[in-house]
Amino acid sequence: MTAEDLAQSGVDGAEARREIFPTLADGISAAPAPSDSEERLAALRRMSVMLAAAYLAAFGLAVAARGRFPEDAIFWCWSVATAVLFILGMTLWQSLMREDRIKARRIRDRDQRYRQTLALLPEGVVILGEGWRVEWVNARALEHLSLGPGCAGRSFFDSVHDEGLRRWLIERNFSGRFALEVPDGRRLEVAVVAPDARHMMIVTHDSTERMRLDDMRRDFVANVSHELRTPLTVISGFLELESAPGSVPPETLARHRELMYEQARRMKSLLDDLLLLSSLENRDEHPDEDAEVIAVPRLIEDVAREGRALSAGRHEIVVRTEDVSLIGIADEIRSAAMNLVSNAVRYTPEGGSILITWHRFGMGAELAVKDTGIGIEARHIPRLTERFYRVDKGRSRGTGGTGLGLAIVKHILRRNGGELRVESVPGKGSTFALRFSESRVFAEGK
Ligand code: ADP
Fold first, then answer.
1. Whose CA is closest to atom 7 on ligand 1?
2. Would you say 304 and 356 are in contact if contact means Cβ atoms under 8 Å apart?
3. Which residue lies with its CA nearest to atom 3 of ligand 1?
4. Does ligand 1 have an atom closer than 6 angstroms to the CB of 392?
């Protein structure tokens, strides 16, 4: 049962609490159900009346029998009747008491079972009694609210000092949830089930991960919109300018067309990268059935050729490979390697050099792209694989970057059992390496 279920099952309703935790609910109020005790009293009353009537009847008979029967016989009959009635009364009384004890034990056992179940819930549960006294708390709530084990029996507010939560609890408007940010940065959702004015059950749910994903989704939509808006603005601006016939001289018109084409290309490469990323995300994480033996040296030669075309003679691109094959998905490994080479070309000033290597690394193997480019400050390195994260936005866009290349590389490596290593010195250059474990390496005679 989740916090949602609890909250939906009748916030502020005794019904819900009785339905979910019937004996626990009774345990909290520490009183037997009124109908039960009334029934018991009526049974006792009936029993006493019947015994008294039987005793009076026996007494009447004894008086009526005087003079007709010998005194001794009457005395003995009277004594036997009294003893029988006494024994009968005691037996009835005892059976009532025993039944009571059995019921109390059953309630205790069930109560304990419910508490054990509550203790295992992934949600935190705190049961408060009169005066905000903590009656019971599970381990998850101790962790969520940083409560000490000694909080039981003390006021909830001795341990939880959040002013907003305090006000919300006191106002008792429990139709919604309270969003609580705890000191360690986690975000909790707090729901309350309050069966009456004196008791309540607080349920805490850790929503940190869900909120992080929500934030990421929002950022992603904002980033994509922003990336698409710029080229679209340029294209629509030019089209507007040209809408009046003869308003733009033919030589300027040609230049406009060139710029519009460039912007359209930029949008296309963004959409291509987005589609690739989304298809990588939707595919299986461990696609072993699609894996094949890849002749990496040949693949690297193809990638280097494309890199040289991209560089158009501005860089020296050198390849050094060992005769080792890789088990993976060839198209994806090619795409990852091409992303690294294209980055090296784009972030290395003219005259710099790029070295692409493929070699054994320990028991595994490594494909590395080393450049003598602008380098990256250490603080940016952990964030490079985030979508749209760029160290220098202007330079990235200016060279046709989408900000998605390394995010794509990360996904490809996840699917192909590799990891990305980055080493960089600002102003000197960077090395981006795809490192694969032994299980992915295929060497003749291995
Ligand atoms: P982009 O399309 O912007 O290049 P990437 O995801 O490929 O996006 O790279 C993210 C950022 O990492 C880049 O914007 C750039 O700042 C930095 N970067 C990537 N490769 C290099 C490199 N070889 N040298 C310097 N900076 C790099």
1. 405
2. yes
3. 403
4. yes
